[in-house]
Amino acid sequence: QVQLVESGGGLVQPGGSLRLSCVASGSIFSIYVMAWYRQAPGKQRDIVATIYSGGTTTYSDSVKGRFTISRGNNKNTAYLQMNSLQPEDTAVYYCGANYAYWGQGTQVTVSS
């Protein structure tokens, strides 16, 4: 079992930046991929970015060039640096591990 806790969400103006953090606990030695998802009101949860244990990253087209996923040196943390935020980025952001575990989410609101 893996437990995930996200932090770093909040209210930001369009064009601003936020950095989300995710801390994993439990069977962290089993984690081979971590990811960030988001779910806007009335929409399905979509994957935003992934990072594999070897360092390979992938991004959805909607955030490519603006968001950066990374992992901490101890490998039980993941980050999502979000730049040039737009109102359409407003959503609850979830951290995931191994496509099987998810945290409770953190709200990101982009509004003037």
Helix and strand succession? EEEEEEEEEEE
**Average pLDDT number:** 96
Measured as a percent range, the helix fraction is under 10%
Q: What can be said about the biggest beta sheet?
A: 7 strands, mixed
Number of helices: 0
Identify low-pLDDT runs: none
**Which structural class do the helices and strands define?**
mainly beta
Q: In one word, what is the shape? A: globular
Query: What's the total count of β strands?
Result: 11
Q: Work out the radius of gyration.
A: 13 Å
Q: What is the beta-strand fraction?
A: over 45%
Could you give the distance between the termini? 40 Å
What does this structure look like?
This protein has 112 residues and is mainly β. Helices cover 0% and strands 54% of the residues. It is built from no helices and eleven strands. It has strands at residues 2-7, 10-12, 18-26, 33-39, 46-52, 57-59, 67-71, 77-82, 91-97, 101-102, 106-110. Strands 2, 4, 5, 6, 9, 10 and 11 form a seven-stranded mixed beta sheet that branches. A four-stranded antiparallel beta sheet has the order 1-3-8-7, with no helix packed on it. A hairpin with a 3-residue loop joins strand 9 and strand 10 (101-102). The chain is globular and about 40 Å long. The relative contact order is 0.33. The model has no long low-confidence stretch (mean pLDDT 96).
